[in-house]
Write a structure and sequence with these properties.
The chain is mainly α and 297 residues long. The protein has a single domain, classed as MetI-like (MetI-like fold, Orthogonal Bundle). The protein is 75% helix and 0% strand. The protein is built from 14 helices and no strands. The longest helix is centred in the middle third of the chain and has 37 residues.
Length: 297
C-alpha cells in the first residue's frame, strides 16, 4: 500500500516539476527568435482584426462603396475589387472568419484526438486496435476531399466548416496522445494513483493527460494553421459561407483579374501567408520549449 507520506511526497515533487517547467518554458521560448517574431506577428494581426471597426469605416465588407478596380490609395489602402468593395475591409473581416474557423476547428480536433488517443493508449489491446483502425481510415482519405463531401452535404455555414474541419483533422492528435499514454501508463506516479484507489478516468485525465499535453499543445498550433488553409481552400472552391467575408472567396474572385488588378489577390494571400507563418513559428518555439530533449541544447 502507498502510505500518506508517499502521497504527500508525490504532490510536492509534482508541484516542483510544474514550477521548474514554467520557468524553463519561458526562458527557452524567449531565446527562440523565430517564435518571438511569430508571436509579435500574430498579436499584430489579431489586433488588426479585433480593431477592424476602428481601422475601417466600412463595417459591412460586402457592401459596394466606390468604383471598381481602384488601386491602393489613402481612402482604400488595399484598393477595391471588381464590384467596388473595399478590399481592406474584406481582408480584415475575412481574416476574422479564418481565425475563428481555425481556432475552433483546432480545439474540436484536439478534443476528439485527445479522447480517442487517451482511450486507445490507456486500455490497449482490442480497444487500441479498433480505434487505430478508425484513425487510419480517416488518415487514408485526403482531408480536403473528405471536407468537400461533408460540406457539400450539410451546407457551407461557418459552424459547419468548423465541425467538418475539426472532425477531419483529429487523427494526428490521437496518435500523439496514444504514444504518450503508452509511455506514461506504466510510470511510478500512475502506479501510485492506482494504489490510492483512483478510478480509470481520474488516472487518464487527471494524472497521465496533463503530462502528455506538451506535444498536444504544439500540434494544436500547427492544427490551427492547417485549419485556416483548409477553410481558405474550401472557400476558394466555392464551399465557404456566402454570407460572410472570406479570404478564400476573395482569392477565387480575383482569379479573373490577376493581370489588371493585382491587389485583389495579393493582400488576401499575404494575410493567409502571414497568419500561417506566425502560427508555424510559434509552434516551433513551443516544440523547443516543451520538448525536454530540445530544451537541453
Amino acid at each position: 500500500m502507498i502510505d500518506l507520506n508517499t502521497k504527500l511526497q508525490s504532490k510536492s515533487v509534482s508541484q516542483f516539476i510544474r514550477k521548474y517547467s514554467s520557468k524553463s518554458f519561458v526562458r527557452v521560448f524567449r531565446r527562440n527568435t523565430g517564435a518571438i517574431i511569430g508571436l509579435i506577428m500574430i498579436v499584430v494581426l489579431v489586433g488588426m482584426v479585433a480593431g477592424a471597426p476602428l481601422l475601417t469605416p466600412y463595417h459591412e465588407p460586402l457592401r459596394l462603396v466606390a468604383n471598381p478596380f481602384i488601386p491602393p490609395t489613402l481612402a482604400h489602402p488595399m484598393g477595391t475589387d471588381d464590384l467596388g468593395r473595399d478590399i481592406f475591409s474584406e481582408v480584415l473581416y475575412g481574416a476574422s472568419t479564418s481565425m475563428t474557423v481555425g481556432f475552433f476547428a483546432a480545439v474540436t480536433s484536439v478534443l476528439i484526438g485527445m479522447l480517442v488517443g487517451a482511450i486507445a493508449g490507456y486500455y490497449g489491446k482490442i480497444v487500441d486496435d479498433a480505434l487505430m483502425r478508425i484513425t487510419e481510415l480517416f488518415q487514408v482519405i485526403p482531408n480536403l476531399l473528405l471536407a468537400l463531401v461533408a460540406v457539400a452535404i450539410i451546407g457551407p455555414t461557418i459552424w459547419n466548416l468548423i465541425w467538418v474541419i475539426g472532425v477531419t483533422a483529429w487523427p494526428s492528435t490521437a496518435r500523439l496522445v496514444r504514444a504518450e499514454f503508452l509511455t506514461l501508463r506504466e510510470r511510478t506516479f500512475v502506479e501510485a494513483a492506482r494504489g490510492l484507489g483512483a478510478s480509470n478516468l481520474r488516472i487518464m485525465f487527471g494524472e497521465i493527460l496533463p503530462n502528455a499535453m506538451g506535444p498536444v499543445i504544439v500540434n494544436g498550433s500547427f492544427g490551427m494553421a492547417f485549419a485556416i488553409i483548409l477553410e481558405a481552400g474550401l472557400s476558394f472552391l466555392g464551399l465557404g459561407d456566402p454570407n460572410i467575408a472570406s479570404l478564400g472567396r476573395l482569392l477565387i474572385e480575383a482569379q479573373a483579374y490577376l493581370r489588371i488588378a493585382w491587389w485583389i489577390s495579393f493582400f488576401p494571400g499575404l494575410f493567409i501567408a502571414l497568419i500561417v507563418l506566425s502560427l508555424n513559428l510559434i509552434g516551433d518555439g513551443l516544440n523547443e520549449a516543451l520538448n525536454p530533449r530540445l530544451r537541453e541544447r
